[in-house]
Amino acid sequence: MPEGDTVWHTAATLRERLAGRTLTRCDIRVPRFAAVDLTGQVVDEVLSRGKHLFIRIGGVSIHSHMQMDGSWRVADRPVRVDHRARIILEARDIRAVGVDLAVLELLDRDNDGAVVAHLGPDLLGAEWDAAVAAANLAADPQRPIAEALLDQRVLAGIGNVYCNELCFVSGHLPTAPVSAIADPQRLVARAREMLWLNRFRRNRCTTGDTRAGRRLWVYGRVGEPCWRCGTRVEYLSARDTAERVQFWCPACQR
């Protein structure tokens, strides 16, 4: 599930493989931009902002958002391309394929920041500001914690996995009000730490134990014993709530 750490790592990979190289193929499979061909132009930079990714080439910025199922696949040898491909970029032996991208559009490079201007502080960004993020989080005291953490206008980069894990480590139910958080700045600092430590990992780890099956506190562990107290982890599906899927320990979270 692409969250801020996945997008940051994807941008780093694309930057390493494509930045400074001349495109030998550009195939955009979105009707609105299908006639655009950037072949022969140099990839200047690749960067992420929260869950958004930008590939800047000349005066154009390729903006993508993966949402739940999207991905960018990069390899030295040909990457499989099927009907799910939305864009193919090649620089000689390097091929990058955007698959199942929920958003793919071409923007004026000078104004591409407008599409992310509404976002809160980027958890993995160079301009991360914990004080602003904490103030955003505390701005609506009665809002459920999970809802606030998932709101990219509060802070950018948290998805459902980190949301559930942060609720656990803070000792609160996902449905508890933001006012229950005694120290919002400590929570947003913990959020940044989680994403920062996982930005290069294929499998996320929030427990400190990287063994298979022990990497997460509650997410995806319905019916299994809590690593702290042994109580069975509970679960609420998206069908039963207006929020996203929620996991929690009824003993450790109040």
Automatic annotation (TrEMBL):
Statement: the UniProt record of this protein carries the keyword DNA-binding: yes
Domain Formamidopyrimidine-DNA glycosylase catalytic: from-to ranges: 2-98
Origin: domain of life: Bacteria
GO biological process, one term: base-excision repair
PROSITE patterns: FPG_CAT, ZF_FPG_1, ZF_FPG_2
Alphabetized GO MF terms: class I DNA-(apurinic or apyrimidinic site) endonuclease activity; damaged DNA binding; oxidized pyrimidine nucleobase lesion DNA N-glycosylase activity; zinc ion binding
Keywords, alphabetical: DNA damage, DNA repair, DNA-binding, Endonuclease, Glycosidase, Hydrolase, Lyase, Metal-binding, Multifunctional enzyme, Nuclease, Zinc, Zinc-finger
EC number(s) stated in the UniProt entry for this protein: 4.2.99.18
Reaction equation(s) it catalyzes: 2'-deoxyribonucleotide-(2'-deoxyribose 5'-phosphate)-2'-deoxyribonucleotide-DNA = a 3'-end 2'-deoxyribonucleotide-(2,3-dehydro-2,3-deoxyribose 5'-phosphate)-DNA + a 5'-end 5'-phospho-2'-deoxyribonucleoside-DNA + H(+)
Pfam families given in the database record: Fapy_DNA_glyco (PF01149), H2TH (PF06831)
All residue ranges annotated as the FPG-type domain in the record: 217-254
NCBIfam families in the record: endonuc_Nei2 (NF040775)
Homology family: Belongs to the FPG family.
Protein name: DNA-(apurinic or apyrimidinic site) lyase
